[in-house]
Design goal:
globular; mainly alpha
Length: 260
């Protein structure tokens, strides 16, 4: 796992740049806010969050998973299941847990105050996929580490999941046009931009659906799936009505949103 940081960072930048290029060449919606300012704020908050979490909680999930394997900790290590089965099951369970965490951040008011910074973006593109408050990222990391202790997944599965989670978050937030038939096929296996965009609607009945990040099955399984927005993808309003003023979208103002 010596190359783990390089794999994660490399994948992060490659996917972010690729999605940025794709949504510039084939945009789904016309953005009505300055893109350069939004990207500076959204990418900036991502680095602030990553830095603070690493400072306050300097434990890497893949390293913890490797230690659990060596010590025989966690359900999968106790049961001694085949590696391939543990790998697949771990990726699926971790993704389902992120789905459940996402639901909780909408359901509980104190958690919603943190998560609403993500929803306050009045446009949606690849940079929105990395726009999360540092406190939310910290809590998410704690949940992830506890899950690894309980589950005991292979370190390679945790690394794969980390890359999938970050990559799919940038992909499904991207403002990129995908033909309807292609989207219908893709969303059987992945959360697509059109599927996740519904989640960023200003309408409560829509932003409380489509919680999935990578795999789309959990929303269908737990009855939180909405196929299309009522006003269409080009006509729907994105964001939160209480945070539409430009003063809420600078880097430092974004940090204050949970406390307003």
């Amino acid at each position: 796992m010596a190359y783990e940081p390089y794999i994660r960072l490399g994948a992060f930048f490659i996917i972010l740049i690729a999605m940025g290029v794709a949504e510039t060449l084939w945009p789904r919606r016309v953005l009505d806010a300055p893109k350069a300012k939004r990207w500076f704020s959204n990418v900036g908050i991502s680095f602030v969050s990553a830095g603070l979490v690493r400072l306050l909680l300097p434990l890497v999930p893949t390293v913890l998973a490797l230690y659990c394997t060596e010590q025989g900790w966690g359900l999968l290590n106790i049961l001694e299941v085949p590696y391939w089965f543990a790998f697949i099951l771990s990726v699926l369970i971790l993704d389902m847990l992120i789905y459940g965490q996402h639901v909780a951040f909408h359901y509980y008011p104190i958690l919603w105050r943190l998560h609403r910074m993500h929803h306050a973006d009045i446009n949606i593109d690849a940079s929105t996929g990395i726009r999360f408050h540092p406190i939310e990222i910290f809590l998410s990391m704690v949940i992830k580490l506890v899950s690894i202790l309980v589950l005991g997944p292979p370190a390679s599965a945790v690394l794969t999941f980390e890359v999938l989670l970050n990559g799919s978050a940038m992909f499904n937030h991207a403002n990129v046009f995908i033909p309807i038939r292609t989207d219908a096929t893709l969303r059987q296996f992945l959360v697509t931009p059109d599927m996740h965009r519904v989640h960023h609607s200003t309408h409560r009945r829509e932003y409380n659906t489509n919680y999935g990040f990578c795999f789309p099955w959990w929303d269908r399984m737990f009855k939180t799936y909405t196929a299309q927005p009522a006003e269409g993808h080009t006509g729907m309003k994105i964001g939160l009505n209480i945070f539409r003023d430009s003063r809420y979208h600078g880097l430092f103002s974004m940090l204050r949103i949970p406390f307003l």
